[in-house]
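Q: How would the C-alpha cells look for this protein?
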Amino acid sequence: MHVSSDLIEVKPPAHKVRQILALLLLNESHYVSISSLTRELWAYEPPKSAVTTVQTYIVQLRKLIAAGLGIPSSEVSRKVLQTSGTSYRLETPEGALDLHEYRICLARAEAAVAAGMDREAVGHWERAEGLWRGDAIADVEHGPLLRAEAASLRQSRLSAEERRIDAQLRLGLHHSSLAELAGLVQAHPFEEGLHAKFMLALYRSGHRGRALQVFHDLRRSMVGELGVEPSPSVQRLLQEILASDISLELTP
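A: Here is the predicted structure in C-alpha cell form.
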C-alpha cells in the first residue's frame, strides 16, 4: 500500500510538498495543524520561517491539484484543500484511496469473525492484503509523523495476516498455511504468535518434529538476542505438542 504522489513533479523542495500531501491523505479528511506539518518537515528544529514556508508549500500543492484536476486554485481552496484557522485538510471522496478500502475490508473481516463466519472473514482479509504494493508510504521521505504512520500501517498489515491465519487454522487449512508461515517466521524472528501458529500448523500436518524445531529456533533467537525465554503460552504449546494433547486437534 502506498499514498500516491504522482501529481507532484516540481523542483526542490518537492519532497517536502510530497510529505505534506502524504500526511493530509493519511488523516483522511481530518484537519492537520500547521504545527504538526512543521514537526513533520523539520522534526524538532524548525527554521524561524517555518510557518510561512508551510503556507507557501500549501499554495504550491493547491496549484498542483488545480492543474491535475483542471479546476481553478480558488475552487481547490474551497472544496479540496481547505483551511480552518491554522489547520488544513484534504477532502477525499469515500473510496478514493486504497487506504479507505483497506480499513473497510478489515472492519468487515472482524464483523464476520464475530458472527462465526471464518471463511468470509478470510476473504475480506485477503482483499485487504491484496491492496498492499510494497512498503507503506514508500515513495515519500519520512519525518517523525510519517514514520509513526508507516509503522502503524506495517503493524496493521501484520496483525491482519495473523488474524487471517488464525481463521484459516480454525477452518482446518493448516496445510495451505505452512509455506506462508515459514516465510513469516523468517521475516519476524521474535514474533511468538507467528511461531506458535507455525508450530500448530506443522503439528496438525503431521510434522511434530519440525514443530518442536520451530520452538527451539525461537528460543535460541530470543535467549541469544534478547536475553529472555519464550512466553508461558508458547512453552505451554510446546508441552502440549510433546504430549500429543488432544486439545490441539481440530474441532469439527
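Strands lie at 32-33, 81-84, 87-90.

Confidence is low (pLDDT under 50) at residues 1-12.

Upvote if useful.
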